[in-house]
Amino acid sequence: MAEAVAPARSETRSLVCSERTGGILTLTLDNPPANALSIALMEALKAALEEARDDAGVRVIVLAHGGKVFSAGHDLKEMTAHRKDADRGRAFFAETMALCASLMQTVVRHPKPVIAAVDGVATAAGCQLVASCDLAVATANARFATPGVNIGLFCSTPMVALSRNIPRKQAMEMLLTGEMIDAGTALSYGLVNRVVAPEELNRGVMQLAETVASKSPLTLKIGKEAFYRQAEMGLAEAYEYTARVMVENMMARDAEEGIGAFIDKREPEWRGE
Question: Which Pfam family, an example, fits this chain (predicted)?
C-alpha cells in the first residue's frame, strides 16, 4: 500500500495520513504502535471521512494502516486514566463509545464505498472498523479477534458490525472465546473479500478500488445507501423500497447514459447525475 510521507512525530502530528491517487483517497491510520482508536484518532478519521463526503473527485476511500497493526481497538490506557475522574470515568467512557458508534456509522452511511486494507492485527474496535467497511482486502499476515471477553469487557459494540457481516454462529464464537482467527478463516466467514500475499496488498486493493471507481458515482451512492437500508427491513418492505429506488435510479442521467452505451456497445461517460 503506497503511503503518504510520515509527518514529524510531535504532539500535533496527524493521526490519519491522507493520499490521493486519481479518484481513490487512502486514509492511513498512524497512531503507533497499535493504532489505538483514541478520541483524537477517531475524531481525525471522522473528520477526514466527512471532508471526502462532498468531494466530487473522491470516488472510493481506502482505509489503510501504518505499522504491523491495523488497529488494536480502543485506547485502554487513555480510558483507564479516566478512572481517576470523580465519576470513575463514566462520562469519558460514554463519550468514547458514542464517538466510536458515530464513526462506524459514518463509514456505513458514507456515500463513497470504503475498502479496508489489512496487513496486520485488527482486534476489538479495530475488527469492528474492518467489519464496518463495505469491502476488505487482507494479507496472510492479517489476524482478527474480538477479545474483550478475555479482560472482562464483552465486545458489545464491535458485535453490532460483526453480527451484520458474518453468520451468527461464527460471530458468537469470536465474541465468546476471544480467540484470534487468521485471514483464511476471516475469508471463509465473509469478514474479508479477498486474501492476497503481503507484497500484493497495494496492487490488489488498488485494482479493486479502481474497478469500483470506474462506475457511476451516483449509482454507487444510490446502491450503497439502498443496500444498508433494505438489510434492516422485512422482505415485503425491502422489495417495496428497492423498487422505488430503481425507478428513481432509472430517471437519472447516468442510468440513461449507461443503458445507451451498453446498447451502442461503447464506454459510458459518467456525469454523476
Answer: ECH_1
70 touches 120 (CB < 8 A)? yes
At residue 115, φ and ψ (nearest 5 deg) are: -115, 125
Domain that holds residue 238: 217-264
- Residue 247: CATH number of its domain: 1.10.12.10
Cell numbers 460483526 correspond to what residue? 162
Q: Which three cell numbers, joined as nine digits, stand for 84?
A: 481517576
Q: Does some domain include residue 8? A: no
Strands (E), 10-101: 16-21, 24-29, 60-65, 69-71
The whole-angstrom separation of Cα 264 and Cα 258 is: 10
Give the torsion through C-alpha atoms of 252, 255, 256, 257, to 10 deg. 120
- Residue 189: give its domain's CATH number: 3.90.226.10
Per residue in 202-243, pLDDT tens? Answer: 999 999 999 999 999 999 999 999 999 999 999 999 999 999
